[in-house]
Amino acid sequence: MIRTPVYLDNQATTPCDPRVVGAMLPWFTEKFGNPASLTHAYGREAEAATEKARTQLGDLINAEGREIVFTSGATESNNLAVKGALRFHRQFGKDHVVTLMTEHKCVLESARAMEREGLRATYLPVEPNGLVDLDRLKGAIDDKTALVSVMAAHNEIGVIQPLADIGAICRERGVLFHSDAAQAVGKIPVDVEAMNLDLLSISGHKFYGPKGIGALYVRRRPRARITPLIDGGGQERGMRSGTLPATLVIGLGEAAALAQAEMAAESARLLGQRQRFLGGIQRLVPQVRVNGDLERRLPNNLNLTFPGVPAPALIAACPDLALSTGSACTAAEIEPSFVLKALGLPEPLARASLRFGFGRFTTDEEIDFAVETLGRAVQRLAADGVTSALAGTT
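RE: above sequence
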């Protein structure tokens, strides 16, 4: 028996793995110490557990545990990376950030905030497949560039940027390299050493950990210098003051350990489900088109356009499926996705696009159910003339 609505929005958030919940439970009541209270056993126990989690997360990305700074999530980490790097390096005449037009809103808005402080930002276009042109990126870096920020794997179209190539360019030019890796960490291999990453943003709830916890990797050698956003007691080596939420930190560490152990097998299974889903949809809706590069892509992501079928009408016609048009951070907006428009999609096609995110707990039966449900809905809307009427209003 399939439980509905079938959840196909794992880019927005993932359910907390029961094993992660099990690891956290004792820390809500029995083990409640403050990790900074090192004068007694309760605090020392909490401190040891958070340091273990720091190491677990570091191991997942090939970093030292002490290079992990815990935050409330990727939005805070991205703000800390972009604003912190630019504010610190402004004193040395470095006043420029290079990023992409398709970045998450928190990166774009951080760059715009820096422009309001008098610094400079370059927003590069992407190719029609969603990938950055490396020559264009190299040409955008000047002698006052402090930071390049490029998302590892895209939250809407799933494309995976060539981080190692970008990292090599940044290292050669002496520029800090930051990546919003919220969608990548725990799903595909990420190696901060091989990719020459200096700053990397992580979000727990994107890979089956709890909400409200994330991290920023901050390289020690060569040292990445940033100015903190929050002033306080000096926790997290002064980069993020505030009492650590030990329960959430431990959950994040457990999620990282599970991802490291199961990533290869899980990726293979999700790729198979993605192919199963896409093949089924293409049989029922031959005119469907894929947005973004299909090869350099997260194994669990698809972004599809159903020409002539506005996404809101299709979502409304499929109450047994949990779907979205794109980023949860912009879901309330009535405008079509700025990401799809950056790929060159005309507005009617951008409005006719849906994101599909499969996950650890998605079953083959749910995939088949979703294919049939969507296929019937598209056919029914077309037969009723709803799509033509709505398409004329886009």
